Amino acid sequence: MAKITKLDDIVSLCKRRGFIFQSSEIYGGLASCYDYGPLGVELKSNVRKAWWKSVVQMRDDVVGVDCSILMHPLVWKASGHADKFADLIAECKKCNVRTRVDHLAENAEEHTEHISLDIAEAAEYDLSNKVCPGCGKIGQFTEPMPFKLMFETQMGANVDDSMMLYLRPETAQGIFVNFRNVLDSTRVKIPFGIAQIGKSFRNEVTTKAFIFRTREFEQAELEFFCQPGTDDDWWHTWKDLRFQWYIDLGIKKENLRLRDHAGDELAHYAKACVDVEYKFPFGSGDWQELEGIANRTDYDLRQHQRGMRTLNKWYETKGDLTKIDLSDEAEDYEKGPLSYFDEEQKKRFIPYVIEPSAGIDRSTLAFLVDAYDEEEVKGQKRNLLRFHPALAPIKAAVFPLVKKDGLPEIAQNICNDFKKYFNCFYDQKGAVGRRYRRQDEAGTPYCLTVDGQTKEDGTVTVRERDSMEQERISTDKLLGYLREKLDI
Ligand code: GAP
Questions:
Q1: Ligand 1 center to 358 CA (angstroms)
Q2: How many CB atoms lie within 10 A of CB 229?
Q3: Best residue for ligand 1 mutational test, from 289, 303, 355, 365 (most atoms within 8 Å of Cβ)
Q4: Of the chain's two ends, which shows fewer C-beta atoms within 10 Å, N or C?
Q5: Class of domain 38-84+149-366
Q6: Which atom of ligand 1 is found nearest the CA of 169?
Q7: How far is the CA of 162 from the centre of ligand 1 (A)?
Q8: What is the CA(72)–ligand 1 centre distance, in A?
Q9: Is any atom of ligand 1 closer than 6 Å to the C-beta of 217?
Q10: Residue 176 alpha carbon to ligand 1 centre in Å
Q11: Cα of 64 from ligand 1 centre, angstroms
Q12: 3.40.50.1980, 3.40.1010.20, 3.40.50.800, 1.10.10.10: which CATH number matches 394-486?
């Protein structure tokens, strides 16, 4: 049976070994914000690289962009975020704790997170038998009210020309507003995709479970543009590819599943959506979203065509988004500036979009949880992270068995050589068994030990993390051996 790992064990290992720390910890910490330490920054960077390799580097039909976090306010009017991007919350009249309405359950054990309520439906939502997670009182809530999720900030030093902006709540919109630029500056032809990895910000009501849901987080998003009518096939293709990505990077199949969204769960822009879910060890072990693969239809490009037309109005109203009306039923969309002309078919259309949208922090947590293991070796507990080699922060560690007889120099030279190719760590402190354990906890796939025999026959001991098996490899074959095993 699969072992259930406690999240507390992961959190404490992350702090102990320098993967993840609470933000601003010396000032008491800042809720739901986290910093990645020396091992964490490597792990997260490897998650990013693995995503980029699979989604951009290995494909002929996807290009990348890196857009700014601050964007023109009309972007968020057009995308629908300025009007609709809110959570419905209710406040407990007894303890004043505010909770997302869709997170309220009928008993404290139950967990629900799959309802997408429209603000207009809020008043009808029955909270009379829901339990407050703060004090346990039943049905003592205020009327549900919308809580805006976008962070606001001011741009400009002068009061007169300063402008209210939002921190982007998703990276996707940077891609849509650059659709024309990418078309005009590259040779891409539909079907093709534009990918981006970057920070997003949401003033989440409920934050929980370490880096699972935070207010500042990183997304990896692909907007794949295709001809209407081919969108269902592309949706299936990306759903399979994205599921397989996690499996290929070592996530256990029994901990991963696909879950189709029910109609009432779909976001305002989506025709279909499926979540890749991971069985996270929160509470009793909940299936939670890692990534969504949505069919966004032509919603965003159409909306931005409408948004572009409101620019004058926006100036007239001094940037009051509430005065801007995007509805324009008579518009000839297919000929608009964000349409695409297919040379072969001599046809113009607004492309449909398939969007796989993953969380870098959330998948980093899944990789950590899935790799975490404890076992007993010779009566002693061994903690280890069984990372896929592509994700391991350190690929190999080199040890001299003892700090004398020229062994440190040989080991240091090997380590310096390998650093040109991958992260390699030199350690000469303490008993060799202890050094192995430290690397096991960091998830390092290979440890190389230089000993007396190295000086005689030029071989070193190579110890593999998971099996702990050891073999002697000659130093001139070592780099090739490791690069093959690590696939780098
Ligand atoms: N552009 C579509 C979009 O943003 P989403 O389902 O809201 O869709 C996509 O977000 C992914 O981003 C999620 O599956 C999750 O991995 C990650 N994500 C969203 N909100 C997050 C948060 N507050 N903290 C950490 N990751 C988050």
A1: 7
A2: 9
A3: 289
A4: N
A5: alpha beta
A6: 4
A7: 30
A8: 21
A9: yes
A10: 17
A11: 19
A12: 3.40.50.800
Q: Confirm or reject: Cβ of 214 under 6 Å from ligand 1.
A: yes
In the reported structure, the alpha carbon of residue 261 is separated from the centroid of ligand 1 by a whole-number distance in angstroms of: 15
Contacts of 277 (CB under 8 A, 6+ apart): 256, 257, 258, 259, 287, 288, 289, 290
pLDDT tens, the chain, 488 aa long:
345 568 889 999 999 999 999 999 999 999 899 999 999 999 999 999 999 999 999 999 999 999 999 999 999 999 999 988 877 888 889 998 888 887 787 765 444 444 455 556 666 678 888 898 888 889 899 888 888 899 999 998 877 778 899 999 999 999 999 999 999 999 999 999 999 999 999 999 877 789 999 999 999 999 999 999 999 999 999 999 999 999 999 999 999 999 999 988 888 789 999 999 999 987 656 899 999 999 999 999 999 999 999 999 999 998 899 899 888 655 667 789 999 999 999 999 999 999 999 999 999 999 999 999 999 998 999 999 999 999 999 999 999 999 999 999 999 999 999 999 999 999 999 999 999 999 999 999 999 999 999 999 999 999 999 999 999 999 999 999 999 999 88
Q: Does the C-beta of 299 come closer than 6 Å to ligand 1?
A: no
Is the previous residue joined to 191 through a cis bond, with omega within 30 degrees of 0?
A: yes
Q: Where are the domains of the chain?
A: 38-84+149-366, 86-148, 394-486
The answer to whether 242 touches 356, Cβ cutoff 8 Å, is yes
Q: How far is CA 412 from each of CA 408, 409, 428, rounded to the nearest angstrom?
A: 6, 5, 9
- Ligand 1 pocket: which of 23, 277, 357 to mutate (most atoms within 8 A of CB): 357
Q: Does any ligand 1 atom lie closer than 6 A to the CB of residue 277? A: no
Residue identifier of the C-alpha nearest atom 20 of ligand 1: 213
396-430: burial string, b at 16+ Cβ within 10 Å, e else: bbbbbbeeeeebbebbeebbeebeeebbbbbbbee
Hey, is 414 helix, strand or coil? helix
Residue type present at position 245? W
Nearest protein CA to atom 19 of ligand 1, as residue: 359
Q: Whose CA is nearest to atom 14 of ligand 1?
A: 291
